[in-house]
Design brief:
The complex is a heterodimer of chains A (about 280) and B (about 260).
Chain A: H1 2-11, H2 28-49, H3 60-72, H4 80-111, H5 113-126, H6 131-142, H7 146-170, H8 174-182, H9 187-224, H10 230-239, H11 243-271
Chain B: E1 4-11, E2 21-28, E3 33-37, H1 44-52, E4 59-64, E5 67-68, E6 76-79, H2 91-95, H3 97-101, H4 106-119, H5 135-148, E7 153-157, H6 165-182, E8 186-190, H7 193-199, E9 202-207, E10 212-218, H8 221-226, H9 231-235, H10 238-263
Parallel strand pairs in B: 3-8, 3-9, 6-7, 7-8
Antiparallel strand pairs in B: 1-2, 1-4, 4-5, 9-10
The chains are: A mainly alpha (about 280), B alpha/beta (about 260).
Chain lengths: ~280, ~260
């Protein structure tokens, strides 16, 4: 919207000059949409010209058709929705437990010296390890059932949320803390009324990062050890060279990641409207 | 009525060789508006932080009605230089925040908050978000918030320092009106000489290295404003100008003394 306002402002002082024609500016959203359309067109053109075998790259319409088929009748004993549901359930559970535990742990690290001393090295030790490196150990301990996958995602999401929360707690404006103290706030009230709301933008950023990491970890885990889920669907289709299902699966995985990111950005705007405002 | 007493207070930052404040004695009682004036580095803010309970003195005692001060508390309301409002609350909730912390039920604290907003001329701003306010409006919300908790005295840390000259004069007059109406003792720190002379019933001049009181004055310009005289007429009164020049001369002589000290 703003990009439409700018030319209007620029034009105002130059009314003496003859107006050659309305100046036309594309909004960023339009530019992005055009890029996507161009990409799809190139994809379609390449497949339609027959330069590449459908085995390597099926046409957009073939993928779309396969999508319809998958959604209605399914692939590998499950429809697309069931695979999608399995993946979403895993990440949903992992995220839920991660938020429930990582936020209190982050607050403890940020606000308490002892908690920081105990927990900070533990988190910093396991955080840089790629989750897939410890997946085998989790599989040995917990089997290849749902538990091991939820646990893996949980661990992947936990660290970014805990670290972001701790950072948010540590960077609370001291003036706001003093203001609340001089109004009679107890330590618990400080946490509830000042520290948590102050850290909320950072917590949400941590969740955004965590979800991104968690989603890629989940799909990778499903590629290795699963009997359902989007990752499993792509992996098993690849084994039988069903390229259209592979492409479709990748697109769905990308779409879900995109939707989660957009949803969280909207949530951030709703929950922390003061973030980025000069106040 | 509240009586604040500081007896031979010294303060030192951990690890620092020189104390920030040395041997400060002060009293602040009902109907007083005590202004601490001094250049930066004279320990003004440290003095306010000691009274507010944010830091502890290294020597001496601070008492309020005979009870030693331990840590911050709701009986000493603070107005901060940079408002320190909570942006996740609207104006009404900010003003009622102290009462919320004290467990006052919502209808009662909102009624009280509305009353305080009216007192600082902000009726109608209840639902505004903090970032939609101007600097002067934020400071008025900060004042209303401190007053809503009904503190026994009010501490103000350069409350108008960040405002433009025009708004600052308005705020000074507003503060005098509020001070008159609520009859609360006020301790205010500033580096603005005219502001200090205009507001103070009692003015203490602080000098740095270490922070100490070099002059105490009893003034009545603020009271004259309260009795109905206009701010312009007070500020153009030869006695006001004379007092202001006297304080100014004192500040400058202090400054040159400090420079000589530093050179030596």
């Amino acid at each position: 919207m703003s990009s439409y306002e700018v030319p209007a402002l620029v034009r105002a002082p130059t009314t003496r000059r003859p107006v050659i024609g309305p100046r036309f500016t594309l909004s960023i959203r339009w530019i992005s949409s055009l890029t996507l359309i161009a990409l799809l067109t190139v994809w379609w053109a390449i497949t339609a010209s027959g330069l590449i075998e459908p085995l390597f790259l099926p046409s957009p319409f073939a993928v779309l058709q396969k999508g319809w088929l998958l959604a209605t009748s399914g692939y590998m004993d499950a429809t697309l929705w069931q695979h999608l549901g399995a993946s979403l359930q895993r990440i949903g559970l992992g995220l839920l437990f991660a938020i429930l535990t990582a936020v209190p742990v982050g607050i403890a690290i940020g606000a308490n010296r002892i908690a920081r001393g105990v927990l900070d090295p533990l988190i910093e030790f396991y955080r840089p390890i790629p989750p897939l490196a410890y997946l085998p150990l989790i599989v040995i301990w917990c089997g290849i059932g749902e538990l091991s996958k939820v646990l893996l995602i949980y661990l992947a999401i936990f660290a970014p949320i805990a670290i972001a929360t701790a950072t948010g707690v540590r960077t609370v404006d001291p003036a706001k803390l003093r203001a609340a103290q001089s109004l009679g706030a107890t330590r618990i009230q400080l946490i509830r009324h000042v520290i948590v709301p102050s850290a909320l933008p950072d917590i949400l950023t941590g969740i955004r990062i965590g979800l991104g990491v968690g989603w890629s970890t989940l799909v990778a885990a499903e590629l290795i050890a699963a009997t359902s889920g989007l990752g499993f669907m792509v992996q098993s289709a690849a084994q039988f060279l069903v390229t259209d299902v592979v492409v479709l699966g990748i697109l769905v995985i990308a779409l879900i990641a995109f939707a989660m990111e957009m949803g969280l950005r909207t949530l951030q705007r709703k929950l922390v409207p003061w973030h980025g405002q000069a106040h | 009525m509240a009586l604040l007493q500081l007896e031979r207070i010294s303060a030192q930052y951990p690890g620092a060789a020189e104390p920030v404040l040395a041997d400060i004695s002060l009293t602040l009682g009902p109907r007083q508006l005590l202004v601490a004036l001094g250049p930066s580095g004279s320990g003004k803010t440290s003095l306010l932080n000691l009274i507010a309970g944010f830091v502890e003195p290294s020597a001496g005692q601070i008492t309020l009605d005979g009870v030693p001060i331990k840590g911050p508390g709701a009986e000493r309301g603070v107005v901060f230089q940079d408002d320190a409002l909570l942006p996740w609350q609207d104006v009404l909730a900010n003003v009622g925040f102290g009462l919320e912390l004290a467990g006052v039920p919502k209808p009662k604290r909102e009624a009280r908050a509305r009353e305080m907003l009216a007192l600082v001329d902000l009726a109608g701003f209840e639902q505004r978000r903090v970032w939609q306010l101007s600097g002067g409006q934020k400071q008025r919300v900060g004042l209303a918030r401190a007053l809503a908790a009904d503190p026994r005295l009010l501490l103000m840390d350069e409350p108008f320092g960040a405002l433009d000259a025009f708004t600052r004069e308005q705020m000074q007059e507003l503060l005098l009106q509020v001070w008159q109406r609520t009859a609360k003792p006020v301790f205010l720190i500033t580096h603005d000489i005219e502001e200090a002379v205009f507001l103070a019933t009692d003015l203490v001049l602080l000098a740095p290295n270490p922070g100490q009181i070099v002059e105490r004055l009893s003034l009545d310009f603020g009271r004259r404003y309260g009795d109905g005289e206009s701010a312009r007429s007070i500020k153009s009164d030869p006695r006001f100008i004379e007092t202001r020049e006297h304080v100014l001369a004192k500040v400058f002589s202090q400054r040159s003394a400090t420079r000589q000290q530093e050179r030596a």
